[in-house]
Write a structure and sequence with these properties.
By secondary structure, the chain is an alpha/beta fold. The chain has nine helices and 15 strands.
């Protein structure tokens, strides 16, 4: 299928989800859900990535593209999009790179980091999550949506078969050439928390800043990023950008390890739907223990040095 998308899709939303090595960008499910289950997966091993969106998509297109060059990719995608609107991308690293190029090629307004998308409008939050704004756009638009914003609940019905869209490589004169020297994996210690696939997070129960610093090193050993509750960041035990919750960062990890976190609603609402949750807490009845796949009743302060020793991390 090399012609533009079916004209019957005009003025209907479509999610464009970047894919790397068969994994959709974080927030891909939210983008697809916001587009009414219509998604176009673009990248390496794109067809394999459809498995991770099962239960979310009703119409799925795939295009195999090697190398991530957002300018060239936007040039190749734009002729196929017709009047699809809004075009929705996850506000992940790749989604944030691709969206402005796509908006430029389509000559459309760009709305960034929305928490909700409806016909002709998108909702964004400002001032640390305290104020919501509805942005209305006349005509087609490009929107990025925050990973974890929608809390997608997959449907267990029959899944559509992906249709392949062949993309013509853009002429070299149409876009600035980019030479890829290397593709480096993200560093869990410094990557954007919203993009993290694994997170180890500490709450008031870890005891202090030294424990949070140790938890960060344990996270690196586990290939996980460091997260925290608002109590921890307000106390200055770790950086504000590590805060998870409705007034912090919304995340969608596959693994979430919570140490000394009771599970206040403001924190839990920022978790999305982790595939696996491990909770360590002295209070066996707290909300975080109730949502855990593995609940460990013990003192997080005593567990941390033992876990560090097991992983070969200096206490």
């Amino acid at each position: 299928m090399s012609e533009p998308l079916d004209a019957t899709g005009a003025m209907t939303p479509l999610a464009v989800v970047p894919v790397r090595d068969g994994r959709p960008a974080p927030g891909g499910s939210e983008a697809a859900a916001a587009a009414g289950g219509r998604a176009w997966l673009v990248g390496t091993d794109a067809e394999q990535a459809t498995r991770e969106l099962e239960g979310t998509v009703v119409e799925v297109l795939v295009s195999e593209v090697t190398g991530f060059d957002p300018g060239a990719l936007a040039t190749a995608l734009a002729p196929h999009l017709g009047d699809r609107s809004p075009v929705i991308l996850p506000a992940s690293a790749d989604g944030r790179d691709l969206a402005p190029h796509l908006a430029h090629r389509l000559d459309r307004p760009l709305v960034c980091a929305a928490i909700e998308v409806s016909e002709g409008a998108a909702t964004v939050v400002t001032h640390g999550g305290r104020i919501e704004h509805d942005i209305v756009f006349d005509g087609p638009a490009v929107v990025t949506i925050q990973p974890g914003a929608l809390g997608v609940d997959p449907d267990e019905g029959p899944q559509p078969s992906p249709a392949v869209v062949e993309l013509e490589p853009p002429a070299t004169a149409a876009v600035a050439a980019v030479d890829l020297e290397a593709s480096l994996p993200p560093d869990p210690a410094t990557m954007d928390l919203s993009d993290a696939d694994r997170i180890v997070a500490g709450g008031a129960g870890v005891g202090g800043p030294e424990a949070m610093e140790l938890l960060g090193r344990i996270g690196v050993a586990l290939g996980a990023s460091l997260g925290a509750t608002r109590v921890v960041t307000d106390a200055g035990w770790t950086e504000p950008e590590r805060q998870i919750g409705t007034t912090g960062v919304e995340v969608t990890p596959s693994l979430y390890v919570a140490l000394g976190i009771s599970g206040a609603v403001q924190h839990v609402m920022g978790l999305g739907a982790p595939e696996h949750v491990i909770s360590v807490n002295l209070d066996r009845s707290c909300p975080m223990m109730g949502m855990a796949d593995l609940a460990v009743v013990c003192d997080a302060q005593e567990l941390l040095p033992a876990l560090a020793a097991r992983l070969g991390v200096d206490p």
